[in-house]
Amino acid sequence: MKLIRFGELDKEKPGVELEDGTRINVSGFTNDYNEDFFAGDGITKLTEWLSSNKESCSKISAETRLGSPVKRPSKLICIGLNYAKHAEESGMKPPKEPVLFFKATSAIVGPNDDLIIPKNSKKTDWEVELGVVIGKKTSYCSEAEAMDAVAGYVLHNDYSEREFQLEREGQWVKGKSCDTFAPLGPYLVTKDEIKDPNNLNLWLKLNGKTMQNSNTSDFVFNIAEVISYISQFMTLLPGDVISTGTPFGVGMGLKPQRFLKEGDVVELGIDGLGTSKQHVKNFK
Q: Where do the H-state alpha helices sit in the chain?
C-alpha cells in the first residue's frame, strides 16, 4: 500500500495511492499518518477498512500538492558514510560503527516542493537516500528483531550545506537542518511491497544529468544492523524516519566540486518508491 498526504503545507490530509495510480482521500478512517496511527497498527486497520470503504472515498486530483507522507515525526535520524564508495569519495574510511546524526524535523517538506538555498549558503549539496519508517516503539532490539519494527520505506533527499556541516564548528546537524532540506515522498510504501530493501536501485539527476546511480547493496551497514544499533542508544517511536545514507556522486565529491544554484532542477528516485523533483531557489 502507498500512503500519501495531500493539500496545502501544514494542512495535509491522509490519502492512499491505489495500484492503478488513482489517489483517494481516507480522512474518513484517520486524521493523519502520525505516531498514533502507526502505534495503533494503523496500516493493517486501514487495509481492512479500505476493503469495504474504498469506493466511497473521494478522489484526489493529480495536480494536488503532495506533502511528506509522514506527519512530522519525533525524530529524523540519519546515517553518515553508509555507502562504501561514498566514503571513498569523501576521503574517509568506511566507519566501524554507524555514524549517527539528527536532521531537524522542521526541514521536512513535500516531495516536489522547492528547495530553498539557505541564507549565506555557499555549498548546498544533494543526497538521494532510502528512508525507513518505524512502525512500533522499539528499544534494545536485536538485528533478528529489527525488521519487525519497520512500517515501510520512503524516498528522501538529504540536502546538506557543506560549509555549515564541515567547515564551521560543532556537529553536522546545522548543515543538514535548513528549511526544505528534507523532502520526503511521494509516498510511504508499506514493507510488504518491498521485497529486499537492501537491494534497491537509487538515482539522482541534476538538470537532467545523472549524478548518482547506485544500489543499496553498497550499504556498509544494512537496515537491520542500523535499526538495532540506533535502538541501543535511543527509543525509536512509531513514525520515526531513519535515512540510511547516500551513494557516491554528491557535489562535494566532484572534481571540481559542484553545488546547487538558483534555477537548478533536482530529480531522484528509488525502485518501488517513486520519484520526486525539486526546483532550486534562493532564500528571499
A: 35-39, 42-53, 84-89, 143-146, 162, 223-231
CA 227 vs. chain centroid, Å, equals 15
Q: Of 30, 3, 228, 239, give the one whose Cα is nearest residue 137.
A: 239
Helix (H, G, I), strand (E, B) or coil at 283: coil
Written as nine digits, the cell of 190 is: 508499506
Q: Is-contact 115 183, C-beta < 8 A?
A: yes
55 φ/ψ angles, rounded to the nearest 5 degrees: -70, -25
Instruction: Locate 78 and state its grid cell.
Output: 540519519
**Nearest residue to 84 (alpha-carbon basis) of 271, 245, 270:** 245
Burial of 196 (0-12, 13-18, 19+ CB in 10 A): exposed
| Overall average pLDDT of the 28-51 stretch | 98
100: β partners: 79
Q: Read off the pLDDT band of 69 (50, 70, 90).
A: very high
- The grid coordinates listed for 202 are 537509487
Rounded to the nearest 10°, the torsion over CA 137, 7, 130, 19 is 100
Helix (H) or strand (E) holding 280: strand 274-282
Question: What's the whole-number average pLDDT of the chain?
Answer: 96
Cell numbers 514493507 correspond to what residue? 191
Which position has the grid cell 532540506? 181
d(CA 121, CA 127): 17
Q: For the chain, how long is the longest CA-to-CA vector?
A: 57
Alpha-carbon distance of 228 to 205, in angstroms, equals 32
Cell of 276: 520526486
